[in-house]
């Protein structure tokens, strides 16, 4: 069981604009069945975690429909509306506790920290983030929501080109081991 942070990023390390727009990303050419793309990645995911900005973006973008079938934990200090019939719960519990619940719910499959970057950092702080996958779009934004605002050492495991994207998969080093 592996815990992944899988995301797209601008070349200068932002995953959304300051206004939480992904327009710069959604206009890019990608083969969803190609190298390191979403379809193959998502197949082995058994549970999701995300912060409230990401959750609110998904809800706005999908006009209230929920596209994920996996159990999902949304980190927030607020009472947000939940999509009807979806397996989504709000939490402000400790990341390690939530991670254990995700492992139980995932039935042996992997876990996906959808974002944002600081939440992925909290999973890394807790010692439960194993891999970081980044699809770099050929765009710079100058500012925005940061990719992973931590000092982490990573080992490059895999690289690929998927149409407009430069894709990398990295292992998070633990206890000083690269
Ligand atoms: N490029 C991509 O592929 C990609 C991937 C994922 C996300 N995104 C976008 O990137 C942006 C990320 O936004 P963001 O940086 O604000 O991060 P976020 O993680 O989506 O949301 C941050 C918010 O989550 C809540 N939160 C975080 N940690 C918490 C904890 N331990 N306990 C309780 N609540 C916690 C807090 O809000 P409250 O407590 O106030 O609710 C915090 O302000 C979004 O626009 C999203 O759509 C892009």
From TrEMBL:
One of its GO terms (molecular function) is 5-amino-6-(5-phosphoribosylamino)uracil reductase activity. SUPFAM superfamilies: Dihydrofolate reductase-like. It comes from Microbacterium oxydans. Pfam families: RibD_C. Gene3D superfamilies: Dihydrofolate Reductase, subunit A. The lineage of its organism: Bacteria, Bacillati, Actinomycetota, Actinomycetes, Micrococcales. One of its GO terms (biological process) is riboflavin biosynthetic process. InterPro entries: DHFR-like_dom_sf, RibDG_C, Riboflavin_Biosynth_HTPR. Residues 70-149 form the Bacterial bifunctional deaminase-reductase C-terminal domain. This is Bacterial bifunctional deaminase-reductase C-terminal domain-containing protein.
